[in-house]
Design a protein that fits this description.
Blueprint: E1 4-10, E2 18-24, E3 27-31, E4 33-35, H1 48-55, E5 60-62, H2 64-69, H3 73-78, H4 82-85, E6 89-90, E7 93-94, E8 97-99, H5 103-111, E9 120-121, H6 123-129, E10 142-144, E11 149-152, E12 159-162, H7 164-174, E13 178-180, H8 192-216, E14 227-232, H9 238-249, E15 255-258, E16 262-263, H10 267-275, E17 284-286, H11 292-300, E18 305-307, H12 310-315, E19 319-322, E20 325-328, H13 354-362, H14 366-393, H15 396-407
Parallel strand pairs: 4-18, 5-8, 8-13, 9-16, 13-14, 14-15, 15-17, 17-18
Antiparallel strand pairs: 1-2, 2-3, 6-7, 10-11, 11-12, 19-20
Helix pairs in contact: 1-14, 7-8, 8-9, 9-10, 10-11, 11-14, 13-14, 14-15
């Protein structure tokens, strides 16, 4: 089977929202969908059986930058791709996979280092900082030029080089069904002049990625044709986002990632700017976004798939998503709380009490992170699955409003 995308149902309530199916050589992904992140070919604290059976994930996403550094793309290729290496399979057949391009690591270790902000900044953060001269005591670990990026390994400090061509070569060895063009992801605090420079570079790199992908042919690891997604950039600037969508939308990509940085208040709006321009018949992935409200706003504005490390990262610190908002199960009030971790009896974590999970964290037991991670991933996978159901039934608007009213009360 080759890669394709079909729209099952367009929303009658929101012109961009839709339910669909992404067909890959290794299976289908029903959209909207949250994709668990397995950065180093492992979803932290979970086995693949737990990701499949207890979380319900249909695909996983691995990190090109980290797998290149450790264990190395050649080792991954010897396994037949990272899906086989991590046993992300069913009945001996690999399941759908994504890899990012390494572009976000350019952002986090280069231009954004020293800003002290993440992909999403509030407008208050930006207004406080944009008038200040950037100062940092940190040595930047990545230096960007028009040809690519030179960076130091976070593992041993050795120097390495990524170009669009090298990113494509590595990702062909990693063997994901869907992978992303090499892009520059800027800080949300970067001025518009730098954002302009960065999207011009991203567009030039996108063309080079397509050319190298076509030259390489099928994946070296799997023998299957991979789908290449372009990555729209432009920060929080409408003119740049729209320009990036027009330029990349005219290129021969199989789908699109929406990357880069946003102001918290305008994330949904920025996504709408882009998706009103991108080809309707190709899937759209919102990179690195996992807050429940942001997911719902993304779905409303035409996003098909999401990924984010947040659900497992906060889980390891005792934070849980619940339908009544986020809680910290390490709080003393949960010591005697006999209610189940999950209110849904069908969820695996319904078998355990909040008191028990509180105990596991206080006792520094590894199972604490496992149970909390299963729960948080299940929450976001289910959120997207419920959104899909309501899109098909024509009741997404009511579903979204009810969820937000309860979760953010």
């Amino acid at each position: 089977m080759s890669f394709s995308f079909e729209i099952t149902k367009k929303s009658d309530e929101f012109p961009l929202a839709r339910a669909g199916v992404i067909h890959t050589p290794h299976g289908d992904i029903h959209t909207p969908a949250f994709i668990p992140v397995g950065t180093k070919a492992t979803v932290k604290a979970l086995t693949v059986e737990e990701v499949k059976d207890k979380v319900g994930g249909e695909a996983v996403l691995a990190n090109t930058y980290h797998l290149y550094l450790q264990p190395g793309d050649e080792i991954v290729a010897k396994h037949g791709g990272f899906a086989k290496m991590m046993n992300w399979q069913k009945d001996g057949n690999p399941l759908p996979t994504f890899t990012d391009s390494g572009g976000f690591q350019v952002f986090s270790l280069g231009q954004a280092l020293g800003h002290g902000v993440s992909k999403i900044a509030t407008s208050v953060e930006i207004s406080k900082r944009e008038t200040k001269e950037e100062t940092s005591n940190h040595e930047k670990l990545a230096v960007i030029d028009d040809e690519g990026v030179t960076f130091k390994s976070v593992i041993d400090g050795t120097t390495h080089r990524f170009t669009p061509e090298i990113s494509m070569q590595i990702q062909h060895k990693l063997g994901a069904d869907i992978f992303f063009a090499f892009d520059e992801c800027t800080s949300p605090l970067a001025p518009i002049e730098y954002q302009r420079e960065a999207i011009d570079r991203t567009h030039s790199w996108a063309k080079r990625c397509i050319d190298e992908h076509k030259r390489l042919g099928v994946s070296e690891s799997t023998g299957k044709q991979q789908a290449l997604f372009g990555v729209v950039q432009g920060g929080a600037y409408e003119e740049l986002r729209k320009e990036s969508a027009r330029v990349l939308g005219s290129m021969d990509f199989d789908g699109y990632g929406i990357g880069g940085s946003f102001t918290k208040e305008d994330m949904g709006t920025a996504v709408r700017w882009v998706n009103e321009i991108l080809p309707e018949n190709k899937p759209r992935h919102l990179l690195g976004i996992g807050e429940p409200l942001d997911i719902l706003l993304g779905i409303e504005n035409g996003i098909d798939t999401f990924d984010c490390v947040a659900p497992t990262r906060i889980a390891r610190n005792g934070a849980l998503y619940t339908y009544d908002g986020r809680i910290s199960v390490t709080n003393a009030k949960f010591r005697d709380d006999m209610s189940p971790i999950s209110e849904n009896e069908e969820w695996y974590t319904h078998k355990y009490t909040k008191s028990y999970l509180h105990h596991l964290f206080k006792a520094d037991e590894m199972l604490a992170s496992t149970l909390a991670s299963i729960h948080n991933l299940k929450f976001l996978v289910t959120l997207c699955g419920d959104a899909r159901k309501h899109l098909i039934e024509g009741t997404f608007k009511e579903f979204k409003e009810d969820f937000i009213k309860r979760y953010y009360k």
